[in-house]
Amino acid sequence: MIRRRLVRGRSLVATIGVWLVLGVMLVYILGPLLFMVTASLMPAVEVTRIPYRWIPRTFYWQNFWQAIRGNDGRFYFVRNMINSVVVATAITFSTVILSTMAGYGLAKFEFRGRRTVMLLIVATMMIPFQVIMIPLYLIAMRMGMQDSYAGLIVPFLVNAFGVFLMRQHLLTFPNEILDAARIDGASELQILRRIVFPSSWPAIATLAILTFRSQWDNLIWPLLIAQSRHMQTIPQYITLFTEEKYTDEGAMMAAAVLASLPIVILFFGLSRYFVGGARLFSAHKG
Q: Residue 167 pLDDT more than 80?
């Protein structure tokens, strides 16, 4: 009896400890997001006030108008937001399609050098983007892609991580289903379109969210390619908005909130698939 009580006591202490750690992590993660949202509804004077008031006295909606209008009043925010949506969506779509096709070939086709090809693809993940940034920029300049959607999209149409993720997922796909489809006369493209893609939603959603977020936050490459204000992306807009002489902390937070909305919408729209895909990737990685 005493031993059972000790075991129950230890289990209770362990449970409480786990919940405390999770609570601290939750506050650490959600704290900056909560600050961003509440500060976006305050005048600049209240944002910088110490101690900070987490609940605004009045909702100062003018911050969002200032963020959209810009300090110069030219409304570049809308155009830059559209640019980011177009670029991130196009890159995400192409990455999902091409990575799935490449992963399918590397996982299900037997050919000499298959492992070597996969190792070379994975090895490119070890190369920092800053190493290839200047050569890539020179190539884009030679091809006349500066200050255009092509210059922002083409260099990122596919990435090594996407090929690796889809290949790892498709290694577990039953070969019997594919063989049955081939016996029925289906071509490889038909197998991809009718069988592989519909059955790979967890991995596809994971890849789509990670790719979209990566391109949405991309700042270095657009700084090189997009010089004109009408071709810049939302990270560039926020950078310029915060660096101009007139700064408004509340408007800066409002711009950050507006810029975060597409990522939040995409995540919650694909969250159930993303969680399954994250578990799948962890299993493969382990």
A: yes
168 contacts: CB under 8 Å, gap ≥ 6 = 103, 281, 284
Q: What predicted TM-score, i.e. pTM, was given to this entire model?
A: 0.83
Residue 200 CA, distance from chain mean position:
19
Q: Give the residue range(s) of CATH 1.10.3720.10 domains in the chain.
A: 71-285
Burial 191-220 (b: 16+ CB within 10 A, else e): bbeebbbeebebbbbbbbbbbbbbbbebee
pLDDT at 208 over 70: yes
Rounded distance, CA 207 to CA 215, Å?
12
* The CATH homologous superfamily of the domain defined by 71-285: MetI-like (1.10.3720.10)
Instruction: Determine the Cα–Cα distance for residues 248 and 242; give it in Å rounded to an integer.
Output: 8
Residue 22 CA to residue 33 CA, distance in Å, equals 17
Q: Which residue has the higher pLDDT, 155 or 11?
A: 155
75 torsion bin: left (phi>0), alpha (psi -120 to 50), beta (else)? left
